[in-house]
# Entry
Amino acid sequence: MSDKPKIQVIKKGPYVVQNIPSVKDSEDNPIERDNPSLCRCGASKSKPFCDGTHASIDFDDTTSDNGPTKEFEGKDITIIDNQKICCHAGYCVKGAEKAFFTFDGDKRISHPDKETKEKIIETIRKCPSGSLAYKLNGELSDKYFDKAEVQILKDGPILVRGGTTLKNDEGREPIAKDHYVLCRCGASKNKPFCDGKHKDIKFNDDE
# Structure
């Protein structure tokens, strides 16, 4: 059996975390269980763990595609954006507001020449979802973490870092394989990835 870090997405069921040494709950406490099963339907009474409720509520894990990835080329840096997997953490608009974003309808547009290259890089590296990445001299930069780790975010998604493989029947892969966020409220339209719907439905860990 491979000892590489991975997360198995069970069809209409939980996430099974395997071979990841650092798994922490929303209070930043280590989860001591081996290969924990984490709820993704949002209805477990034992969050963040699965308690089997997905079966009784007939959890629907229907998904859609990731949508198009867009590139915004500037003089010193190219910004890569996949809006559909944005988890709305807000680091981009707070960190480099002149570069992120203006809107054409519901489509967001980045402006790489309106902030310094250094500020844009610093901001993109804080993006937990992998929705944003960047290119320098035509080369993609999207790998920032050496250690595999999982962090449950309070009333929010599951943050995954460090090159953890995602296994699922649909063959869905994160755009940035080094870091991504997984839905655990059950409401994302882009499962298994978070799309920010936890904020819309006011997902609560304690309910």
Summary: The first helix runs from residue 53 to 56.
